[in-house]
Amino acid sequence: MAYVPQNIELFSGTIRENIVLGKDNATYDDIKSACENASCNYFIEKMPAKYDSYLDEAGGGLSGGERQRLSLARALIKKSKFLILDEATSNLDFISEAKIYNTLFVKGKDLTMLIIAHRLSTIRNCDLIYVLDKGAVVEVGDHETLLNKKGYYYRLYESQVGEIKTKTIDEGQENIEIIETKEKATSVKPVKEGEDYEYN
């Protein structure tokens, strides 16, 4: 099992050491792949020593979003079959968040995820959603089922998303359709020939 907490714990050491924590046999290719999937390779590559760049305690000098990306890379490098995401992308801009969830939902076909989130657009593609209010489960179902009930989930989703606006961005080998909400939260739909998944 791999876990990405809301409060990120980084320690004094290199980026490489922070990512491979608990997986000492990780190769450079493993590290690079995990970082690409977590969308953190772009800022690492800009650092003077790249993956051997030194971080201060608690990742001083990194933004909240960069710290979240490193924490996600640390989880992905374990290649676990079960991944828990606890508000794991709350500090990310909406395009970065969309890219990460695109990777998790499309490439992680054998991955079971438990996603804890207040941004409903990040969990709308889940097979099963448990809706909590004041610590109690008040509704259960997939996104469409819960919307059709027009209950608590429906009201929350409507208040966050409102009128759905979409735009498509070019991400090299694939295009990603962004659903932008009132809170800049997103959902994604890979626009790629032959792709089985649709998130809209």
UniProtKB/TrEMBL annotation:
MF annotations from Gene Ontology: ABC-type oligopeptide transporter activity; ATP binding; ATP hydrolysis activity
Signal sequence range: none
EC number: 3.6.3.-
PROSITE patterns recorded: ABC_TRANSPORTER_1
Pfam families: ABC_tran (PF00005)
Domain ABC transporter: 2-90
Class of this enzyme: hydrolase
UniProt keyword annotations, A-Z: ATP-binding, Hydrolase, Nucleotide-binding
One Gene Ontology term from the biological process aspect of the record: oligopeptide export from mitochondrion
Protein name: Putative multidrug export ATP-binding/permease protein
Organismal lineage: Bacteria, Bacillati, Bacillota, Clostridia, Eubacteriales
